[in-house]
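Protein: assimilatory sulfite reductase (ferredoxin)
Species: Blastococcus brunescens
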Amino acid sequence: MKKDSDGLEVRQRIIDIYAKSGFDSIDPGDLRGRMRWMGLYTQRAQGIPGGKTAVLEPEELEDSYFMMRVRIDGGQLTSDALRVIGGISTEFGRDVADVTDRQNVQYHWIRIEDVPEIWRRLESVGLSTMEACGDVPRVMLGCPLAGILEDEVLDATDVIAETVAKYVGNPEFSNLPRKWKTSMSGCVDHCTEPEIDDVSFVGVVNGAGEAGYDLQVGGGLSTNPKFAQRIGVFVRPDQVTDVWAACTAVFRDYGYRRQRNRARIKFLMADWGPEKFRQVLQDEYLQEQLPDGPAPAPAKHDQRDHVGVAKQKDGANAVGFALRTGRISGSLLTRIADLADEYGAGRIRTTTQQKLVILDVPDERVEDLVAALAEHDLQVRPSAFRRGTMACTGLEFCKLAIVETKQHAQDLYAELEKRLPDFDVPIGINVNGCPNSCARFQTADIGFKGSMVRDANGEMVEGFQVHLGGHLGVEATFGRKFRGHKVTKVETADYCERVLRGFLDRRTAGESFAAYVARADEDWLL
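Structure follows.
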């Protein structure tokens, strides 16, 4: 499919042919392949149960509507841009939108006839859906508070912008073996989760006191999770774009294309190791040697979501707040844009935890904004469960999903708030509809991976395989599985309550849930 026509070429066919002739006119290679290069996937037809996901053909699973992903590099938005995003959702997407855990916004119910007009509106405020999906460089993650906080190692805003401008939409990298996920950040909390990206630039200070980046390659989740490996080099800010392009070229040229399920950089890194990767990178692509560099300092805080009120270095405040597992309406996004103008300077950020941040709020306006957001159930000081729960798109719209996730995750955190109202430590509960880990179940304290499960009556029902104790940072580890332990969907709240009460009873002073799981007897966790 990619040899027949570059994925980027589908844009013109959408404008010239498909938007005019309708869904039935779309070439199958474009529909299920190249349209991803422009941020479009067909969405799941309504009413098809999860048990049919692995049985039906793609054309049997898909609807004549699209999911559309808007890429928001670095998570940076103006109020005008967010107003356009919200308006598109309201007018063309049945007022549904999802803020993702990769700083994007996704629409549903998009008709092919409306795509050119949506693109026109997005491009009028500097946004795009180009390469938001597909075997290409996906959205480039950045700290939502880059340039804002006093304690950051350095501000990666410019290096992200330079790299995006030079290479997104560039045919040089429009046919990679598979997706290519990038993060660039100097955040002391490592909020872009560099441990699980394909290529990451992590802020460090070298022995001479110079701020730059540690290069890490080969992270990724899905069915074969791997943590990124340090290459061991120090990258100056003015080298980032060239080093990123060289890493991407290594993946393009050496990545495993023969088997799609091994076509991520993590498999190449597992075979090569960081020493060989560094040698090939320097000798064949950069034609120069990079100096050795230090490892990044550990993340300053366990929670990386920038929720709450944080003091900016200019004296104003950044106000981060939790949505309902990323699900929101276009109307409410428009309202948030208005609040950003009213209480701040019209700057909004998306996070890698399905959250939003309004910047530039004066001290005397913070509590008024907190109250205004709360009117719409947008929580600046959420419960541990509300703050720590994420969910992927799920069965509602995704053709890969086995179970429904968004509403279930919302019901779950609401139930846990009632049952454990005084729970006082951070807890990540990530709900995934399938094994692909779009909501990162392996790195959560409690990770739920969607599957069909037998209930007490022997019936196959929606449920989850449980992963416990995943965490990033120092001694990062993926969640533990226990004898393939599974729970039905209706059992998830009971299960979480049981395990969390055990944690509260047995924990030591200051012990995190992940540390508790690492030492727990298996019967404490079943």
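Remarks: The chain has a mean pLDDT of 97.
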